[in-house]
Design goal:
By secondary structure, the protein is of the alpha/beta class. It has 2 domains: 2-87, ATPase, nucleotide binding domain (Nucleotidyltransferase, domain 5, 2-Layer Sandwich); 103-242, ATPase, nucleotide binding domain (Nucleotidyltransferase, domain 5, 2-Layer Sandwich), CATH 3.30.420.40. The chain has 7 helices and 10 strands. The strands form 2 sheets. The protein has a 5-stranded mixed beta sheet, with helices on both faces. A 5-stranded mixed beta sheet has the order 8-7-6-9-10, with helices on both faces. Helix 3 (108-118) crosses helix 7 (242-255) and helix 4 (154-164) packs across helix 5. It is globular. The model has no long low-confidence stretch (mean pLDDT 95). This is Type III pantothenate kinase. The active site is at 109 (proton acceptor). Keywords: ATP-binding, Coenzyme A biosynthesis, Cytoplasm, Kinase, Metal-binding, Nucleotide-binding, Potassium, Transferase.
Length: 260
């Protein structure tokens, strides 16, 4: 079994692969104070919870947007496997053509999503990752990564409004209004965050179509994708495990054997 870890600002998403198939997906908190040994215990518990603790771990792949966490998780994983533990970064073969000015500045989570998208979906393609930030990653008709954009995420926008204004409250997103006519402040905040993000995705897709010379396939991933997707007026594909699948692709490219 191959273990893939997508380390985000708030959560670590864990995928267990049996060959090409994802056996389980789990999520734990990102905590920079934890040691490798502590995370090793947590990972062992996750494997047991998903009835995968009896399977041999043949290797692991990691992407991270949190400085230092990839090293901590790599240490944790070495308690679980003698196989290769790959951290996506400089020098790792991805097969992805990066046509941008500063490839090293590109988040490794976005590399992973782009890798899987580039050989899975019709090109051109735009991957929209709705997490702490909302990011757009554009792939041209050849599958090359040619550009990107970054905006505040849905929840981050709401948090910023609450923290930097005197009267705007904290609101949840469990009950999104069914139209844009907000009847009170809480509804207005929710509409602005969710419908506003949907409108941004629609507008950016139109602009990417002009820049890429064709209407792109829009692939949504990230924790807020399920919240925003119902309010989009354009066709989209929801791929919640896109980064994990990309990590498995990269691991196989570098180690040339099945993740069983």
């Amino acid at each position: 079994m191959l273990i893939a870890l997508d380390i985000g600002n708030n959560h670590v998403t864990i995928g267990g692969f049996d060959g090409d198939d994802i056996r389980f997906v789990a999520s734990i908190a990102t905590d920079r104070k934890q040691t490798g040994e502590e995370y090793a215990c947590t990972l062992k518990n996750v494997l047991a919870l998903h009835h995968a603790d009896s399977l041999p771990v043949t290797g692991a792949a990691i992407c991270s947007v949190v400085p230092g966490m990839a090293h901590t998780m790599a240490r944790a994983l070495r308690f679980l496997t003698d196989g290769p533990v790959l951290v996506v970064g400089t020098g790792v073969k991805t097969g992805l053509n990066l046509k941008i000015a500063e490839p090293r500045s590109l988040g490794t989570d976005r590399v992973a999503t782009a890798v899987h998208a580039s050989h899975t979906y019709p090109m051109p393609c735009v991957v929209v990752d709705l997490g702490t930030a909302t990011t757009f990653t554009a792939l041209d008709h050849t599958g090359a990564l040619v550009g990107s954009a970054i905006a505040p995420g849905v929840q981050l926008s709401l948090t910023a409004l609450n923290e930097h204004t005197a009267q705007l409250p904290t609101v949840g997103l469990d009950d999104v209004p069914q139209n844009v006519l907000g009847r009170n402040t809480a509804e207005a905040l929710c509409i602005g965050a969710v419908y506003g993000t949907a409108a941004m995705i629609e507008g950016m897709t139109e602009r990417y179509a002009a820049a890429l010379g064709g209407t792109p396939t829009v692939v949504l991933t990230g924790g807020m994708a399920e919240v925003v997707r119902p309010y989009l007026r354009i066709p989209t594909i929801h791929a919640p495990t896109l980064a994990l699948l990309g990590l498995a692709d990269i691991w196989r490219r570098n180690h040339g054997r099945e993740a069983k």
